[in-house]
Amino acid sequence: MNTERRYLYNKTDSYLFSFDVGHQMMQAGRGWNLMRPDDDKADDFDVFHVRGESVVNDRETIVGNVLSAMGHCDFRSYGDTARATGKVLLRTRDGVVIETLYYGASRLQELGQRQLLTVPDLAPIEVKLSYWLRFETSNAKYRWLAQTPCVGFGRGLIQVKPGSAIDEDGFPESLTFDTQLDVYALS
Amino acid sequence: MLPQRRNFVSRNYIYIFSYDVDLEMSREEIGFVPGGVRVNIFAKPDETRVYHALGEATVLENKSLKGTLVWGGDWALVREDDVGMLDVKLTIRTDDQETIDMAYRGIYPTGPRGFRQLVTEKPLLGTEKKPFKGPVYIAPCFDTVSPKYRWLTERQCVGIGEVTVVDSTIRRVSFDVYAMD
Q1: What are the distances in angstroms from CA B16 to CA B62, B64, B65, B87, B178?
Q2: Where on the phi/psi map is residue B47: left (φ > 0), alpha (ψ -120 to 50), or beta?
Q3: Of chain A's two ends, which shows fewer C-beta atoms within 10 Å, N or C?
Q4: CA-to-CA distance for A145 and A59, rounded, in angstroms?
Q5: Residues 6 or more apart from B178 whose CB is under 8 A from it?
Q6: Residue A118 has what DSSP assignment?
Q7: Residues A181, B174: C-beta atoms closer than 8 Å
Q8: Chunked mean pLDDT (size 10), chain A, 187 residues
Q9: Closest Cα of chain A to B122: distance in Å?
Q10: Closest CB from B47, B107, B161 relative to A9
Q11: Looking at this predicted complex, what is its ipTM?
């Protein structure tokens, strides 16, 4: 049996870009589906660098828009953490389409899953997002992104859409889930 | 519509455990598939310890993970763009006899022309005296029915590690696993 190390490997991460997306959240069995509404188009770039820098790691910063976003969250019967998966399609300002695939954890604040049952008096629920991301693109300029291991740290807010109807199980039919995600490259 | 932010979301990595896996010499070579080469690689069972490299007894106010990797395999794809893609499932038996399922996707850059070197065998990558060592990155998640280790299932984790290659064959992989917070 091999011996145990007494040291850790070097770990660094470097910030690449962020994207912020507003979703509609709809119940799907024991989980929830997420989808960005078609009418929620940003006037400004919603793929951006938080500090507005134009160069990151000797490369042009990724800036652009979110074209589409869909995802799914599954909760266990215990606990307030959902396993999350999804895809986000980005288009850079120079017209390149990049597909983002993510999986990870969406952690609601304590008793968050139970809070979803307290509608219509639901207070906004804070969510912590921890994602592993993979990117796909056919464009040579951005191919480095497809070869880079990336993680995303984010936060979200679940709220009842004003005027939402309540279904027979007591859940609101229209929730919104606004997310903010910072993407880092691991090295 | 969300106004553009000028602040970062908080981030933290919490170290959880480490493991170093020696791999079976025999493997299932699927061969060329669209996009790259597929190969299935398996861990030597019951030979890998899961441990805390810094010797701490608790992590996130829970008992540190210590145990043995009883089974594991990687259904790997080495892509034509010099990136290795991992698809791994492992089973951990803790020292207190609980079973934890661990699954992850991952990525390891093989370096420029790495794909060609791995498939053409000219020249072979790494030697016994000077093995090739490269970085590898994974995103594990866990499943268990044990209440003692339920805390693992509530986190997305990342692993930073090293792959050791001799004669173009992966011999060993080592990881440090962190919870994202």
Answers
A1: 10, 7, 7, 21, 5
A2: alpha
A3: N
A4: 11
A5: A11, B13, B14, B15, B16, B157, B158, B159, B160
A6: S
A7: no
A8: 83 95 86 82 80 92 94 84 95 96 92 71 88 95 93 94 76 84 95
A9: 24
A10: B161
A11: 0.91
